Structures are given as structure tokens and as C-alpha cells.
Amino acid sequence: MVSGKGSQPANAEGRLQELGIELTPPPTPFGAYVETVLTDNLLFLSGMLPAIGHEPKFVGRLGKELDANAGREAVRIAALNVLSAARQKLGSLDKVTHVVRLCVYIATDGDFFDQPKVADAASELFRDVFGEDKTSVRMVLGVASLPLGMPVAVEVILEVGSHLQEPARKEPFNHWKAQSTNKPDKKEKRNVIRNRR
Question: Which domains occur in the chain, in start order?
């Protein structure tokens, strides 16, 4: 958590350094999909798993093989992968203007009811990195299983600065189309013929 002592960095990259967090490269996809898609001013991130590189760091279900503390650590790793993928796409986390939506999926077994406590590991990390004023809405879901037996997945939508929007594509110049639009209409043609007589 960010300490309350002294002045704190005003940007996400500065807070990461203050927290002593060094992001690893985002994990490679586990299927036929991409990790990030930027459209207009929103960055959509695929469900991030608690993996480093292409190797799961946790396997099992909460309430059976894993307890809530292990679940929190798994969520934190998945949330760090969110930050890593976002930085790779944007170039800098300082370009994030808001964490819009956070959805945490948790594989559980039996009477496990600590899903909100486990999901807080992601909410707290994003709060510490981006600031409390950028806190998102959130959904937490308990599910029967997740890919490769991993216990959690973290899905996020980020808002980014409007200057990052993809520029509008310009239609290539069409010489023949330009000629046709510059041709005089029938009325103009008749006036030209009369003036020549």
C-alpha cells in the first residue's frame, strides 16, 4: 500500500517505482486471442491469469487446494500482468486516465465465501498505482473452474487519454473519381455550347 508519509508521485509510473514494483513482461496468450485491444479511448484487456511467462504460478480452487491468502497472491499476480500488458500497449501507464471496470473470476469449491477479500488484492493494487480517484466499478464471480486449472482471472477496461485514439483513416486519392466530380453538369454544358455560338 502507498505510504501516507511525504509527498507521493502524481503519476502511475512514479507510484510503481515508489512501491518497488518491477513489472515482468506480460504472459503470452494461452489461446487464439490477443491480450489487449485499444478502441477510441478504451483499452480492453483479456482475462489475465496468475502466470509468469507461460507458466501458471498457482493451480487449484479456493476452499480446497488453496486458501484466501493464496487466492489474494494469485489475484495480485494477475493484476500485475494487467499493468504489464497495458504498459506494453500504451508505452506508459501514465496514459491511463481511469480504471473503468474490474471483473475478478475466482474458482471456488464448497462453502467458500471470501471472494470480495480475494478480489480486493487487485482493487488495492490499482488504487495504489493509479490513485483512489481512479477506482473502478467491480464484479466478483465465483466459478467452477478456470483455464489450465488456475484459480483466478482478472479482466479490466481502462480509459486512456483522447490523444491516443486511432487516427481516422484517410481515403486514398482516386484520380478518376476526382475527374468525374470536376466534370460540368448538363446545364453547364448547354451554357458553354450557347456561348460558343
Answer: 12-171 (3.30.1330.40)
